[in-house]
Design brief:
By secondary structure, the chain is of the alpha/beta class. Helices cover 37% and strands 11% of the residues. It has 2 domains: 107 residues, 2-Layer Sandwich (Uridine Diphospho-n-acetylenolpyruvylglucosamine Reductase, domain 2); 48 residues, no CATH class. The longest helix has 26 residues. The structure holds flavin-adenine dinucleotide. The site of flavin-adenine dinucleotide (FAD) has 28 residues, from strand 3 and helix 6.
Length: 205
């Protein structure tokens, strides 16, 4: 398909490139100054320095309040909507680790910068303990770490913290009709919070 481009006004055509070239450096400088937050840069540097060099870059799974994905990531596992209001305290940043060293780096950098750590797996804590605090804090959200490896031979399973109970039951049922796991009845409860505190269910009682 041929597209007819309009002929440029000769006066405009002569002056515009020079003007644009003169303005562009200032625009770039303005944009980079507007985007640069020294505290954020320091935190990101700390996270990068303390995660393993060969791990996926932690910057790609770190969300600060001025990132467009910050609010969707924060809200995705808030199960009690009472804690999803503009007045609800918000984390300084959220890390969604894809590598174990991201967790280590997040904990170390939080300690260095005096930020409390909140860990969230399924987000089912109805007091919001996994995603709110009354002091400056960060969230380590485990939802990317959700692999489940079932070994029916030795009747064991290796489950990452961000998996849900329903996913665990499903993966076991895929391999065996006589095996199960004695945990809670709600399929969206996270393994991390459940196994570290609760653990009531029909098979467990
Ligand atoms: C609808 C519903 C149904 C439920 N059904 C049952 C049931 O049948 N049986 C039962 O026993 N309980 C049940 N519960 C309670 C549930 O097991 C607990 O609330 C559990 O702590 C939720 O875990 P989570 O990972 O989803 O929550 P989260 O809010 O992510 O975490 C809960 C707590 O554990 C901490 N935590 C999470 N991940 C980690 C981690 N990797 N390392 C260290 N700490 C971590 C969090 O910081 C927080 O303090 C139910 C809850 C709800 C809301």
């Amino acid at each position: 398909m041929v597209i007819n481009l309009p002929k440029p006004n000769s006066q405009f055509a002569m002056k515009t490139p020079t003007t644009i070239l003169a303005i562009v450096p200032f625009l770039l400088l303005y944009v980079s100054m507007a985007d640069s937050d020294p505290i954020q840069d320091t935190l990101l540097q700390c996270l990068s320095n303390l995660s393993q060099p060969l791990s996926p870059p932690i910057s790609s799974v770190t969300y600060f309040p001025n990132d467009s994905s910050y609010t969707p990531v924060l809200q995705s596992y808030i199960r009690n909507l009472r804690f999803s209001t503009p007045k609800t305290p918000k984390p300084s940043f959220i890390v969604t680790p894809t590598h174990v060293s991201h967790i280590q780096a997040s904990i170390l950098c939080s300690k260095i910068h005096t930020l409390q750590v909140r860990i969230r797996s399924g987000g089912h804590d109805y007091d919001g303990l996994s995603y709110i605090s009354d002091v400056p804090f960060i969230i380590i959200d485990m939802f990317n770490l959700q692999s489940i490896t079932v070994n029916i031979e030795d009747e064991s399973a290796w489950v990452e913290s961000g998996a849900t109970l329903g996913e665990v039951y499903y993966r076991i049922a895929e391999q065996s009709k006589v095996h199960g796991y004695p945990a809670g009845v709600c399929p969206t409860v996270g393994v991390g919070g459940h196994l570290s505190g609760d653990w009531q269910g029909t098979m467990a009682e």
